[in-house]
């Protein structure tokens, strides 16, 4: 391999194609979900332990910070789910061309944004 | 590096890891969509509906299946991320071992929640 090829690893000047951005976000979102699982397990434990504690947990949902963390979790989960479905479709042989890959990457972002907004509305209205 | 890579991966075989990640993804997707559907259809969620759901044997089995899928899915995923970004061997090993221990703790905690207090 030639050693004199120009190398640019400056993250601020590298141009990321949209499928690369979706790929990185898939990793970031999966990592967020991984680290927030203890919170989800704690919520499951609390919600199932008694009627009073179930209501305590519902009260906790009224707090802005708690609601925000749940929204972050849902945003990560929904994005990971949508981007994952895109991967599964590609594994099955759908949309493997460059053009289709770009198109499905944008679709995944759009769908995840819409679902995250809906989740936010549901969280703040309920 | 090759040796360590095989030691900490889920199955030690890339193609098997790949398949496990996809099968577990389908189970997790089904579980997540089911829970979202249940919560939306039963809104505002009441304690009795919620507890009755998790009192069903099939729901406990479904939940444990999802927990096992989570362990395997996150193992493959976090392992991949660690091998890509953590270039110092001892740091990667510590991270991967801690991640695997955490996942087993998630599983044990989840099973304990499902079989306590009903």
Number of helices of chain A: 4
Radius of gyration of chain A: 19 Å
Poorly predicted runs of 5 or more residues of chain B: none
- What is the SS-derived class of chain A? mainly alpha
Largest sheet of chain A: none
Morphology call of chain B: elongated
Explain what the structure shows.
The complex is a heterodimer of chains A (126) and B (118). Chain A is mostly helical and 126 residues long. In chain A, 78% of the residues lie in helices and 0% in strands. Chain A has a single domain, classed as 3 helical TM bundles of succinate and fumarate reductases. Chain A contains 4 helices and no strands. The model of chain A has no long low-confidence stretch (mean pLDDT 93). With 118 residues, chain B is mainly alpha-helical. In chain B, helix 2 (14-41) packs across helix 4 and helix 4 (57-85) packs antiparallel against helix 5 (89-114). Chain B has one domain: Fumarate reductase/succinate dehydrogenase, transmembrane subunit (3 helical TM bundles of succinate and fumarate reductases, Up-down Bundle), CATH 1.20.1300.10. The radius of gyration of chain B is 17 Å and the shape is elongated. At the A-B interface, helix 1, helix 2 and helix 3 of A face helix 2, helix 3, helix 4 and helix 5 of B.
């Amino acid at each position: 391999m030639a050693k004199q090829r120009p190398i640019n690893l400056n993250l601020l000047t590298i141009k990321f194609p949209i499928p690369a951005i979706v790929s990185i976000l898939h990793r970031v979102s999966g990592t967020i979900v991984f680290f927030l699982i203890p919170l989800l397990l704690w919520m499951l434990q609390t919600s199932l332990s008694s009627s009073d504690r179930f209501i305590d947990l519902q009260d906790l949902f009224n707090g802005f910070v708690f609601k925000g963390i749940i929204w972050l979790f849902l945003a990560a989960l929904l994005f990971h789910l949508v981007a994952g479905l895109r991967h599964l479709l590609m594994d099955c042989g759908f949309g493997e061309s460059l053009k289709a890959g770009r198109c499905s990457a944008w679709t995944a972002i759009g769908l995840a944004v819409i679902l995250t907004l809906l989740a936010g509305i549901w969280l703040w209205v309920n | 590096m090759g040796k360590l890579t095989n030691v900490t991966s889920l199955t030690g075989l890339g193609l098997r890891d790949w398949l496990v990640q996809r099968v577990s993804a389908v189970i997790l997707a089904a579980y997540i969509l089911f829970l979202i559907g249940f919560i939306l259809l039963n809104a505002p969620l009441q304690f009795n509906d919620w507890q009755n759901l998790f009192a069903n044997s099939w729901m406990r089995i479904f939940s444990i299946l999802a927990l096992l899928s989570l362990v395997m899915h996150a193992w493959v995923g976090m392992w991949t991320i660690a091998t890509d970004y953590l270039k110092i061997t001892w740091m990667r090993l510590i991270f991967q071992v801690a991640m695997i221990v955490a996942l087993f703790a998630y599983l044990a905690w989840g099973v304990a929640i499902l079989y306590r207090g009903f």
